[in-house]
Predict the structure of ABC transporter ATP-binding protein.
Amino acid sequence: MTAVLEGRNLSRAFGGFKALDDVSISVERGQIRGLIGPNGAGKSTLIDVLSGRAQNWSGRIFLGDEEITGLKPQQRRHRGLARSFQRTNIFPGITVRTQLQVAARALGTSGLAEVIDALALGDLLDRPAQEISYGDQRRLDLALALVGRPQLLLLDEPAAGLTVEESLKLADILKDLVHRWDVTVLIVEHDMQVIFSICDHITVLHLGRILAEGKPEDIKRHPDVIAAYLGSEAP
Ligand SMILES: Nc1ncnc2c1ncn2[C@@H]1O[C@H](COP(=O)(O)OP(=O)(O)OP(=O)(O)O)[C@@H](O)[C@H]1O
């Protein structure tokens, strides 16, 4: 299998506190990789390091065969590494259409129609983002990350604040995109229904280190993961 993303020996400290402690991760092409763990485990820190948003970290990162360790977020984005944010990354007063067009222009790409179609945003194009529902805003955030059809999508809690119905719809969209568009996904999510329904592989972080890695059914039964995070009520 080909690794689309490889992080080697990634570390980041805040003062003397190691938020990320020598973590290595390899995500294969076509995978939906879940990244789970308790609050403060280092998940967002890892996403920040991989997307180029973090300062003062160490380690090496490869996107396919290319080392991207020293590249800024926008340079990584141009090479096909996109991310969404825990808080949506959208501008409230601007219409859905304009936000997508601005994102496409910044990337020098066209092909917005397929993104609009995939995320079912067609009826919302002329609405300012502040007027659409929170669930629709999360889909717009995902659409912005998908402009230019990135090869790798880093998602930081895309289902946060969504209803069960919206979360399941999002899960369906993601599964579909991976298969139709050949996008690889690394997803941080606390909603275990979403994680266990879409991920083929899961990495568990705890206290800045990898606690376990494996297939969903093995992770569900892993005693250390149950003790540190899932409890006895794993879905
Ligand atoms: N800018 C910062 N300054 C100081 N400490 C930070 C900073 N950012 C994160 N941390 C600390 O680093 C640790 C890891 O944080 P991180 O946000 O990566 O965890 P997480 O697994 O994403 O948690 P959550 O599930 O709550 O989002 C936490 O203890 C957090 O308090």
User: Anything to note?
Assistant: The mean pLDDT is 91.
